[in-house]
Write a structure and sequence with these properties.
This protein is mainly beta. About 15% of the residues lie in helices and about 40% in strands. Strands 17, 18, 19, 20, 21, 22, 23 and 24 form an 8-stranded antiparallel β-sheet that branches. A 5-stranded antiparallel β-sheet has the order 4-5-6-7-26, with no helix packed on it. InterPro entries: F-box-assoc_dom_typ1, F-box-assoc_interact_dom, F-box-like_dom_sf, F-box_dom, SCF_F-box_component.
Amino acid sequence: MENNQPPLSVADALSDCVLPQDIMFCIVTRLPVKSIHRFKAVCKPWCKLFTTPKFMKMHHAQLSQNQSVMVLAPNRGFTFSLFDTNEKKPTNLADPFPEVLFGMQFIGCCNGLICVSFLPVLQIIELWNPALKLNKSPTWPKLEVGDTTAMVSLGFGYDNEGHDFKLVRIVVSVGKKKKMRVEAEVYSCNSDSWETIKVGLKFIVLGPKNNAIVNGNPYWVARADGNEVVVWFDMSKRVFNVLPLSSLSLKIREIPNVKLVDWKGSLAAIVCQKKDENVVSFDVWVFDDVGKMWSKNHTFGPIGLKVERVLQCFQNGKIIGECLEDGKLFVFDSENGGVKEIVIDGARKGSYQVYGYTESLAYFKGLAKEKVRTEEEELEIDKDVAGFFKRCLGIELAVPLYCRRTQ
């Protein structure tokens, strides 16, 4: 039965409030997710207002001004740690995937929703909203992998026009005479279904997940016609696009020194210039969508640290990376030049996967409460890693597919 009622306006939802509606709306869009979730019970108009895409977008935009850091690190399984760059110590979150012992990939974080998957073929995917303690396992992808598969890669993002979280799974195969075939499929959270799409380009992505997410669109470092390029997927138009790297004159694949990031809403590359392992500068190269060129936007430094690699950049311009000697994380504030070190208990050097995170009301049909295991259930979790993957993936893991490369 169709619902012919007009959409609820902000004025209607807040009409009974004592305070003026504009002040009241300003207040509620700045409340924490936990408070909003509790206030849904006040009345039906509030409950309806708080679940509209428009309100969720405005609420998330307000909270995004104080972005936190989400870290995934192996530690007797995997540990999700959340910390504000102004705090001294991170908070470890309850692991929603306790049975996973290795191979977890932090695909990305977009609008408060986290996506993780599991190597080598990225068929098991989990979507998780830590603030609401909800998660969902999407249906299995349609594209299969086989002996000719050279690469499987996953991208995550948000369709701002369709108000829909989406996944992109790329499968690259090499057939007879080394002929390359690129296939892709898109998962829609709104429809809970996968759809194979036409690629129209020939490229091979150089990693199992997107390198950056900018304005909801995933970006990969890739190779096409013998050249290193950046491939990105337009979540709204559902098409792949290729960006040149010629004007940048850098090998982005050298991950320790160059990192693709979202620099205040634009695609950028942070280049870590070193001398004797000490950071001389962080150079920020921003891609101009109009001129289709890379230009050096900022240079920060020198930094009094020996840096292993740059991990991520956040909307406020703070850069996070890993120290060379002790494996600690550091946060560099590009506005005042301050440096702060962060310790993740039990994490191994070189194991960090990091994304910027802002809690949100992100929800779609199928998200369900995280299952809390009893002590007895925890003891019964199968510790046989090979057996776990064999059951979940239905394949033998003789050679990780993502390690194969075409000659």
